[in-house]
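#help-structures
NK: newbie question, is this the right format to request a structure? protein is NADH-quinone oxidoreductase subunit F
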Amino acid sequence: MTLTSFGPANRIARSAETHPLTWRLRDDGEPVWLDEYQAKDGYAAARKAFADMAQDDIVQTVKDAGLKGRGGAGFPTGVKWGLMPKDESMNIRYLLCNADEMEPNTWKDRMLMEQLPHLLIEGMLISARALKTYRGYIFLRGEYTTAAVHLRRAVEEAKAAGLLGKNILGSGFDFELFVHTGAGRYICGEETALINSLEGRRANPRSKPPFPAAVGVWGKPTCVNNVETLCNVPAIIGNGVDWYKSLAREGSEDHGTKLMGFSGKVKNPGLWELPFGVTARELFEDYAGGMRDGFKLKCWQPGGAGTGFLLPEHLDAQMYAGGIAKVGTRMGTGLAMAVDDSVNMVSLLRNMEQFFARESCGFCTPCRDGLPWSVKLLMAIEKGEGQPGDIETLLGLVGFLGPGKTFCAHAPGAVEPLGSAIKYFRPEFEAGIAQAKPGVPPLARPIVIGA
């Protein structure tokens, strides 16, 4: 898998001016440890934040830069930071890094943690300074064992250099950082489920309000940010708001750069740091190289399994939240998947819905019962045993499990690809109920999760 920030059509070398997240990457893929990171201006932004900026000024700078969450929801980071209490008497507060990257087809945070662990630590250090948090946790997906090893080593290096712990950089500010590996549940990507899991409780989302900024981990004010989000903070502080806003392409309402990728049967699957506003066609053709010989693009997802399917004619959409919304879905994590013309959509959706049904926390009825129901219907259709009305029932479930109908966003994300698949490829679903129609790919052999 390519983990670079340039592709066949763009041989421009990475630089700090254009690739704030990835310019420090080594060509051999090895981690950038402390000495090399500092030689590449590492922790310079942290020193600036500690020496020259008031804590509220850091928050305002991030807000003015327009940084948004990179985990998929896209909530403005500076606004989220501004929700933390101003009361200085509330001196116990926490910063949590959401590194529970379990969205299928997404691996961007893994690359940052494995190869640039100090970039995340610096981002958390500056954020902790701004939020007045004295302790931080990196809640890491349990399967990311290499990332855990690299992060723990980087934490120890930072401690030894006086960049973590007591009286950091002589400022009188204390910040401890811990790496906490989770048990491997998709639902922990929801911030309050993550908090429950960190506390040793069952990973169920919490009722909001109160929001974590008021009542978070162990009942204290807490801010939760994604890995890639936090990794943007040093460049914003180091280079300023105007520079950060200048990175995106014209027409994009989002600022900065984004780790984007393409997987599937493309010639050059990979991950690249690109400006917001690049078109999906550029990403697909110039970077991913288009489809492999013998395969044709049937449809694609723009950002993980929880985003809706789009058709080849949608490739001219710009890759930013509003640009993808114009063609009917969400950008999500920004790592796209190409579906080739040999794939039957019923089998693909049955596999996806099995994953989402299994990962439901079971807290609310629509999600707990609705997702397994969709799996049963899809399995019957996949076997050619579907009954008249099954497609209408599936569409009904898409509505019943949509935004605002469930306790958290798990079920709405789960049914979004289902609704779009039926919208664009209904004949393939109908083929599992009535006689197969000419030109419809045959139902694939059932996909077995874990096989």
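mod (FA): yep, format's fine, and the tokens are attached above. DSSP finds 16 helices and nine strands in the chain.
NK: thank you!
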